[in-house]
Amino acid sequence: MKELRKRVDLIKQKLDFEGLRRQVREIEALSSHPEFWQDQQEAAEKMKKLSSLNKEINEIEELEKLLAAVETTGLEKKIAKLELQTFLCGKYDHLPAIFSIHAGQGGVEAMDWAAMLKRMYLRYFERRGWGYQIVEETLGDEAGIKSITLIIDGSYAYGWLKKEAGTHRLVRQSPFNADKLRQTSFALVEVLPKIESSSEVDINENDLETQFYHASSHGGQNVQKVSTAVRIKHKPTGITVSSQSQRYQEQNRKIALEILQAKLWALNEAKAKAEEQKLKGGRTQAAWGTQIRSYVLHPYKMVKDLRTGYETGDAQAVLDGELEGLVEAELRSVI
């Protein structure tokens, strides 16, 4: 029990338990004023944060009650869960995530693999109780998807998902040829924080080239007669982003700018890391060449993370969204 008490106290210290309670009091005080509700979007964001803060506080208070009652059944498991939360201490870990999947080279095989990853991750998001919004999706010519971009709205979504970024490799018997030959396919996962403050990245409107087009359904038919979808190109970098999930141009433009802001932030981070590696005499790899995980379905079944060495023979469970073991192993490995 003394050891469990030490672990709980450390969790409270790392999560700044008193700071969490202080933030709750501040938001509750603000919400008591009529002017707080005049800006509906800002009020909704604050109330969502209040709910997340109260959830963390309740989890810690539950540990305290179990300790006080000297009940160890399930206590260590609950402590281990909150200990993982303390690892998410990066500046942007608490933010929602912008999550993208891109099919690699290999035509229909790679596009089918990208669709399999989409299904896997959507099930994982649902298991965690996270909401998500599909911002842009480009379907494959014959099967699967070429790419998809989503906004994941969950507590610490970026912190949990950021290590999923990289190249995912699939080995299987091809379902697209009569001989069912062994086929290797690749897809790239990109994870960015949905940065709330525009001060993080300065975007000059003169650097933007904006196009409006018709949002399309999966059948290729126009959803609306007006051009509501938005595509924005950042001319200095060549980065292009788009959104077609909303009914109005301005809403899609806002989402596209949020994605652009995240991509420019990631570009700045990559430049800083490359410069750091250069000063250290090291080399940096292109993101596309960074293979992080292999999913083997033939001639045997295994999923292995190449960074942590974590592996499981239950490949189907992983593809059904059971990613907890892989994600937690990577999270613990960087501490």
Plain-language structure description:
This protein has about 325 residues and is α+β, with helices and mostly antiparallel strands. It has three domains: about 90 residues, Release factor (Methane Monooxygenase Hydroxylase, Chain G, domain 1); about 150 residues, Alpha-Beta Plaits (2-Layer Sandwich); about 80 residues, Double Stranded RNA Binding Domain. Helices cover about 45% and strands about 20% of the residues. The chain is built from nine helices and eleven strands. The strands form two sheets. It has an eight-stranded mixed sheet. β2 and β3 form a beta hairpin. α3 crosses α4. The longest helix has about 30 residues. The two termini are about 25 Å apart. About 5% of the residues have low confidence.
Helical fraction = 40-55%
Broad CATH class of the largest domain: Alpha Beta
The major sheet is characterized as:
8 strands, mixed
String of helices and strands: HHHHEHEEHEEEEEHEEEHH
Beta-strand share of residues:
15-25%
Number of strands: 11
Backbone shape: globular
Oligomer: single chain
Question: What is the CA-atom radius of gyration, in angstroms?
Answer: 22 Å
- Taking pLDDT < 50 over at least 5 consecutive residues as the criterion, the unreliable ranges are 218-224, 282-288
How many separate helices? 9
* Overall number of structural domains: 3
Q: Which CATH architecture of the largest domain would you pick?
A: 2-Layer Sandwich
Question: Averaging pLDDT over every residue, what do you get?
Answer: 86
CATH topology of the largest domain: Alpha-Beta Plaits
C-alpha end-to-end distance:
25 Å
Spatial strand order of the main sheet: 2-3-1-5-4-9-10-11
What structural class results from the helix and strand content?
alpha+beta
